[in-house]
Structure formats: structure tokens, C-alpha cells
Design a protein that fits this description.
The chain is mainly α. It has a domain of 212 residues. The protein contains 13 helices and six strands. The termini are far apart.
Length: 478
């Protein structure tokens, strides 16, 4: 297939499936916590608007959760079919970590999801709130185990290699490896930002269509508040994560910055704001540099420098041409999120946050920005780890299975077609649900709150009196 090798096709297939999959857990994590907040506010303030929003976003959550589960199963099989070398070598670490994720997080989510979605009229408010909280906790536990596994591949610790296989020697060191805390917080905040932008875009969409209701205003306002506080926090966490990466993966940072070598005549490191890294020529062409800013951001000093890519063997260099741009996409979108949150605060102070059309259009356009930033960040992380699958321990070329180019080509094409058909349909359905809005009940009341209706002892007693709304005859009709 277009002269690709089996290794390249296996990487493309896994990259495609994980890029599709990561969208759903990101929204799942954020929406689960959002539902907890909505239900807690309803219980404390007794405002029906929060209950209406909970019912609305719970349906979106259910569809998104289902697509996340289905798309995630595929990757588990790919470890065996396409990456058997990695599974054989590192399965002693990654296998148990993924098993713990299923035993703790997935079972917790699955166990309480039914109560959260269908238990409104069957359990009391306290128990329903507990079920919603457990679903949210399950998503965070799942994030923890997945990030522990992936972080170990980035900064492996607590292991020994015996007979060509990784054997854990210290599980605490395996789980709490050097990059794990930074990457866990960074990903969790990214999920909250993505959800805030998604919910905010939904609110902006309805406000632009003059569907200005209390529920729409409330969800738009809550999204902007979350964005305002989490966006600057994410910038701080991202900076700390970058310093950690510089310590443990200096080649990745050099590739991100498009930095090839230090200029002996320059006492500081400039920041390359734009350029085109050329891996063959070993230079960044058309570079636009900002003096001192590279040293300030990367070392928090004005004169310290970092290693250039030329100080690493050519076979150990990540592809700077890719991650130079993906990193800047992520950072640029992060700055746009900060701008959106700040603009929302200013407009809120002026009393125009719900009716200033240019701002609403900006919020609508920013709807997918969080997910795009997550994808750009993961590309930066994973491509920046190359050529290693376990950094400094196992090369990616040694991890791939002995599959034929034909088999990988056929399955890659099949994945692309099936994914766009199945999950494209699911995403379209989810967006249509969002477009209907939280006021889909019109003047009717939303579904009952927990504990308000119990299962009747006699089946027929559940039948409403007006089940057959036959027209009544008026006197003049007789």
C-alpha cells in the first residue's frame, strides 16, 4: 500500500484507532464530573434547571460512553495482532495495569451507570447521587491506570529485564514513574477543558438561534466559569510537564522546539515561533526567532540552554517536522481558550455575555478546540517518544508483529471505513441530541426526580388517568 512498510502501516493503524477512541473518553471524563456538579446543585438549591440539564447531558453521556467502550476494545486486540513483540516484552507491566483498570474503573462505571441513567424513579435522591458520583470516580480511576501504563512507557521505572522480558520489581515505582503525576493532571484538565468548550458551544449554538432559556443560559455560564479557572491552571501544569520532559526526554523537547544546535556566539536560547524543521538538512528553515524566550520558557532563566538535536544520534531523534507543529497547535488553542474565558468574564461584567453575537460565534467555533488540542498533544507525546516504544529500552521496530503488508493494508482500510460509518453515525446522532437542547420538553416538566415516583404494587395502578385522551363532547356538539 503506497510502498509503506509493515511497521509504518501498524503505526498508522494504531494511531488512527487511538485518535478516534481518545475523543470519547475525554468527553466522558468531563461530562461525568459535570453531571455530579449538576445533581449536587439540584439537591442543594432545589432549582429545576439543574435537574433538566442533568437529564439532558446524561443522555449525551450515555451515547458517548457507549462509543468509547466499543472503540477502546479494538486497541486491546491490536496489542496482540500488531504489536506482539511489545506484548511479549513489556506485558508483565502493561498487562496488569490494564487489568486493574478493568477490575476497578470499568466495573465501577458499569455497575452504577444503569442506576444513574434508569434509576430516577426507583431509588432515592441520596442513592442516585452516590451512583452518579461513582460513575465519575470510575472515569477518573480509569484515567489513572491508563496514564500509569502510558507514562511508564515514557519514563520506565521499577523493572528488571530477565530472559528478554520486563519483570516488575517495584510496583509503586512502576505506577508513580517520573512523568505520571504531570501527565495525569494534564490529561484530566484537558478533559475538563474539552467538555467545557463542548457544553459552551452547545449553549452558544442555542443562544445564536434565540433559544434563550434559563437552562441554556445556565449551562453556557457554567462552561465559561470552568474555562476561566481551568485554562490558566492548565498552562501552569503544562509548563511543569515540559520541565519534567526536558529532564527525562531531552530529545523530544529539542524536536518540539526545532532546536538543532547551540550558537556559541549567543548567550541565550531564542524561541523559534515559526519555521519548517528539515530532518535531512538538520536545520529549521525560515525560522522566526524571539530572543531569550527559549531560555526563559525551557529553563526559567535568561541564559541557560538545552541540548540540540545534533547532539543525539540520528537514529534516536524524534521527527521534529511533525511535533514542531502539533505542539504549536496545542499551545495556540490553549491561548485561545484562555482568551475565550477572559472575554467571557469581561462580557459578564458588562452584562452582554448572553447576547454579544461575535462572542457567541467565537464560543461556537471553539467547540471542538479542546478535542483538537488533545489530539495534537497526544501526537506530540507519542511521536516525540519515537523511535522508542518503551523509552530508552525497546525500539518500536522491535515491537511490531510479523504481519504482511497486505494484511495490514486491508485491515487499515477496513478500520477507516467502519470507523467513519459506525462512529460517524454515533457522533452525528450525539450532535443532533445536543442541537435539540435541554428544553426538549417544551412546557412540560422534565422526567421525575429520584424518589418522586415508586414502582406501584399493582400493575394497573401505574396507568395514568388520561392515557386515552379522547376528545370530550361539548354541549353544542350534542
Amino acid at each position: 500500500m503506497f510502498d509503506f512498510t509493515a511497521l509504518e502501516l501498524a503505526r498508522m493503524q494504531f494511531a488512527f484507532t487511538i485518535a478516534f477512541h481518545i475523543i470519547f473518553p475525554t468527553i466522558t471524563i468531563g461530562l461525568a464530573s459535570y453531571l455530579v456538579v449538576l445533581e449536587a446543585l439540584w439537591l442543594t438549591r432545589k432549582d429545576e434547571v439543574y435537574l433538566k440539564l442533568h437529564h439532558f447531558w446524561a443522555k449525551v453521556f450515555a451515547v458517548n460512553f457507549a462509543m468509547g467502550v466499543v472503540s477502546g476494545i479494538v486497541m486491546a486486540y491490536e496489542f496482540g495482532t500488531n504489536w506482539s513483540g511489545f506484548s511479549k516484552f513489556a506485558g508483565g507491566v502493561t498487562g496488569p495495569l490494564l487489568t486493574y483498570e478493568v477490575l476497578t474503573a470499568f466495573f465501577l462505571e458499569a455497575g452504577f451507570l444503569g442506576v444513574m441513567l434508569f434509576g430516577w424513579n426507583k431509588v432515592g435522591p441520596g442513592l442516585h447521587m452516590f451512583a452518579t458520583t461513582m460513575v465519575a470516580v470510575g472515569t477518573l480511576i480509569s484515567t489513572t491506570w491508563i496514564l500509569a501504563s502510558n507514562s511508564w512507557m515514557q519514563t520506565p521505572q521499577g523493572y528488571a529485564i530477565i530472559d528478554g522480558r520486563v519483570v516488575p520489581t517495584d510496583w509503586l515505582a512502576v505506577i508513580f514513574n517520573p512523568s505520571f503525576p504531570y501527565r495525569l493532571v494534564h490529561m484530566t484538565l484537558a478533559a475538563y477543558l474539552s467538555t467545557a468548550l463542548f457544553v459552551g458551544a452547545a449553549g452558544a449554538f442555542h443562544l445564536l438561534r434565540h433559544n434563550d432559556t434559563p437552562a441554556v443560559r445556565k449551562m453556557f455560564s457554567m462552561a465559561l466559569w470552568l474555562l476561566l479557572f481551568v485554562a490558566p491552571l492548565q498552562i501552569v501544569v503544562g509548563d511543569a510537564h515540559g520541565l519534567n520532559t526536558l529532564e527525562h526526554q531531552p530529545a523530544k523537547i529539542a524536536a518540539i522546539e526545532g532546536h538543532w544546535e547551540n550558537d556559541p556566539n549567543d548567550t541565550s536560547l531564542p524561541l523559534i515561533a515559526f519555521g519548517i524543521p528539515d530532518m535531512r538538512a538538520e536545520e529549521t528553515k525560515y525560522a522566526i526567532e524571539i530572543p531569550y524566550l527559549g531560555s526563559l520558557i525551557l529553563t526559567h532563566t535568561l541564559h541557560d540552554k538545552i541540548l540540540g538535536l545534533k547532539e543525539f544520534a540520528p537514529e534516536d531523534r524524534p521527527n521534529s517536522t511533525i511535533i514542531f507543529f502539533t505542539f504549536r497547535v496545542m499551545v495556540g488553542l490553549g491561548m485561545a481558550m484562555l482568551l475565550l474565558g477572559t472575554a467571557g468574564l469581561v462580557l459578564r461584567w458588562r452584562g452582554r455575555v448572553f447576547d454579544f453575537r461575535p462572542f457567541l460565534i467565537f464560543a461556537l467555533v471553539m467547540g471542538p478546540a479542546g478535542l483538537v488540542a488533545v489530539l495534537a498533544g497526544w501526537i506530540t507525546t507519542e511521536v516525540g517518544r519515537q523511535p522508542w516504544v518503551v523509552y530508552g529500552v525497546m525500539r518500536t521496530k522491535d515491537a511490531v508483529s510479523n504481519q504482511s503488508v497486505l494484511a495490514l493494508s486491508v485491515t487499515l482500510v477496513a478500520f477507516v471505513l467502519i470507523y467513519f460509518l459506525v462512529f460517524g453515525t454515533g457522533i452525528s446522532f450525539m450532535l443532533k441530541m445536543v442541537a435539540r437542547g435541554p428544553d426538549i420538553y417544551g412546557n412540560e416538566k422534565p422526567p421525575q426526580a429520584p424518589g418522586q415516583i415508586r414502582r406501584p404494587a399493582r400493575p394497573l395502578s401505574a396507568t395514568p388517568d388520561d392515557i386515552d385522551p379522547a376528545p370530550r363532547l361539548e354541549k353544542e356538539d350534542v
